[in-house]
C-alpha cells in the first residue's frame, strides 16, 4: 500500500437524503441476488435505499464518522470500519460490489489491486459499479501546478503534505481493467460539484460491468 487513506473524520460534509444513483437504479433487475458490498460506503447514498428495497448490504469505510452516520440512519446495514485496501472480500458471496467516488483517492497500484479483488470475488453474473475521477477533471491540472503535489506517471498525484494520492482515469483504462467483463454502461460526466468544500467542476467516469463466466 502507498500513502494514507483520506481521513474523512477530519472533514465536514453535508448529509443529503440517500437516493439511488440513476446509473445503478436502471440496472437493478440485472443483479442476480440480494447480497451487496459497498466499498467506501460514506453516508450510504446508495446502500440505504438498497436496504429499503430488500438487499442485504455490507458497508465498509475507513471513517468512524461515516460508519456512525450510516448506523444511525439505517441499523439494518452490516457495517465494518476498515481500510478497503486491506479488507478481505469473501469469494462468491456478493451479487453487487460498489465503490462510488473512492478508488481515485488511492495510488493506482492500490486501486488496481482493489479492482482485481472485486473481479475475482464477485459472483458469476454479478455486477460491479464504480465511480472514478476522469483525466478531464480540472483538478488534475490545478493540483499539478500546486507546490503541495508531486506529479507521478499515469495521471497520479501525490499530496506531499499528508501523504495521500489522487488518481485520474480514462474510459479506455477502465474498459481495459474490466476487459473480461460484459460492459453494461460506461459514461463520462462533467458537472458542478457542490459537496465537500468550495463548489468546483468534476469529471467522473461511471462504470457498470457484469461478470460473465464462459
Concise structural overview:
The protein is of the alpha/beta class.
Q: Determine the strand fraction and express it as a percent band.
A: 25-35%
Write down the secondary-structure element order.
HEHEHEEHEHEEEHEE
How much is the average pLDDT?
92
What multimeric state do the chains show?
single chain
Q: Segments where pLDDT lies below 50 for 5+ residues?
A: none
Rg (CA only): 16 Å
Explained architecture:
This protein has helices at about 20-25, 45-50, 65-75, 110-120, 140-145, 170-175, and strands at about 35-40, 55-60, 80, 95-100, 125-135, 150, 155-160, 165, 180-195, 200-210. With about 210 residues, it is an alpha/beta fold. The strands form two sheets. A seven-stranded mixed β-sheet has the order 3-2-1-4-5-10-9, with helices on both faces. A three-stranded antiparallel β-sheet has the order 6-7-8. α2 (about 45-50) links the parallel β1 and β2 (about 55-60). The chain is globular. The relative contact order is 0.17.
What characteristics describe this protein?
3-stranded antiparallel sheet, single chain, Rossmann fold, globular, 29% strand, alpha/beta, 214 residues, 7-stranded mixed sheet
SSE layout and pairing:
Elements: H1 22-25, E1 35-39, H2 47-52, E2 56-61, H3 64-73, E3 78-81, E4 96-99, H4 108-121, E5 127-133, H5 139-144, E6 149-152, E7 156-159, E8 164-167, H6 171-177, E9 181-193, E10 200-211
Parallel strand pairs: 1-2, 1-4, 2-3, 4-5
Antiparallel strand pairs: 5-10, 6-7, 7-8, 9-10
Amino acid at each position: 500500500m502507498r500513502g494514507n487513506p483520506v481521513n474523512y473524520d477530519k472533514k465536514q460534509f453535508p448529509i443529503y437524503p440517500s437516493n439511488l444513483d440513476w446509473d445503478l437504479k436502471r440496472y437493478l433487475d440485472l443483479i442476480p441476488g440480494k447480497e451487496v458490498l459497498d466499498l467506501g460506503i460514506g453516508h450510504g447514498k446508495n446502500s440505504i435505499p438498497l436496504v429499503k428495497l430488500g438487499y442485504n448490504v455490507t458497508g465498509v469505510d475507513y471513517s468512524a464518522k461515516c460508519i456512525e452516520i450510516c448506523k444511525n440512519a439505517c441499523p439494518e446495514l452490516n457495517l465494518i470500519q476498515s481500510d478497503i485496501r486491506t479488507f478481505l472480500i469473501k469469494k462468491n458471496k456478493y451479487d453487487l460490489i460498489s465503490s462510488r467516488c473512492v478508488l481515485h483517492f488511492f495510488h493506482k497500484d492500490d486501486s488496481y489491486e482493489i479492482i482485481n479483488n472485486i473481479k475475482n470475488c464477485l459472483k458469476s453474473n454479478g455486477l460491479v459499479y464504480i465511480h472514478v475521477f476522469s483525466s478531464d477533471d480540472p483538478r488534475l491540472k490545478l493540483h499539478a501546478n500546486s507546490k503541495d503535489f508531486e506529479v507521478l506517471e499515469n495521471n497520479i498525484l501525490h499530496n506531499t503534505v499528508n501523504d495521500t494520492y489522487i488518481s485520474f482515469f480514462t474510459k479506455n483504462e477502465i474498459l481495459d481493467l474490466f476487459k473480461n467483463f460484459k460492459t453494461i454502461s460506461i459514461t463520462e460526466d462533467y458537472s458542478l460539484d457542490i459537496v465537500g468544500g468550495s463548489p468546483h467542476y468534476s469529471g467522473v467516469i461511471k462504470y457498470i460491468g457484469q461478470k460473465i463466466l464462459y
